[in-house]
Amino acid sequence: MNLGLEEMHWQQLMKQGNDCFDQQQWLQAEYFYQEAITSLDSLWQQDIENIELLMAWISGVHNLSALFEVQEESQVALQFLLIAHQRMLDLSQNQTLSEDMQLIAHRALKTTLMPLLQYSQKYPTCNHCQHALQTLKAQLDQNQETVH
């Protein structure tokens, strides 16, 4: 499949997942989101500095989290939030990537941190985890000011 068709493919899968989500067809939505994420991951591995693919991947993983949350599977929902956040954390610290990509990943940490903070407000989390999230948020806020 050429790159243009594959990109349209993940977008179509994500739309189908969203449509199934809206219709409360949970298993079908999960399937389409998983397929979109797999496709995005493959495309991103070929073009590792493509911000759009990376952000779409985060969106797909967050969609899966939302899917499990509405099904009252909060621990599974949390795992997907953590997967996205951990990837951004790893990328932001990966010295083999360009400085631009590290900066993009660092900024994307806010995109992955906010849903974790919202999760911790809805569901009980241990004090240690709550403190770690707040500390990371403070660090990101401070770094944001430094970058500007």
> Which sequence of SSEs, written as H and E, runs from N to C?
HHHHHH
Unreliable segments of 5+ consecutive residues: none
Shape: flat
Our Rg estimate from Cα atoms comes to: 16 Å
From the N-terminal CA to the C-terminal CA, the straight-line distance is: 41 Å
Into which percentage range does the β-strand content fall? under 5%
Question: How many DSSP helices?
Answer: 6
Structural class: mainly alpha
In percent, how helical is the residue content?
A: over 70%
Mean pLDDT level: 86
Major sheet details: none
DSSP E strands, number: 0
What does this structure look like?
With 148 residues, the protein is an all-alpha fold. The chain has 6 helices and no strands. It has helices spanning 3-22, 26-46, 51-70, 74-92, 99-122, 127-147. Helix 2 runs antiparallel to helix 3, helix 3 packs antiparallel against helix 4 and helix 4 (74-92) packs antiparallel against helix 5. The termini are far apart. The mean pLDDT is 86.
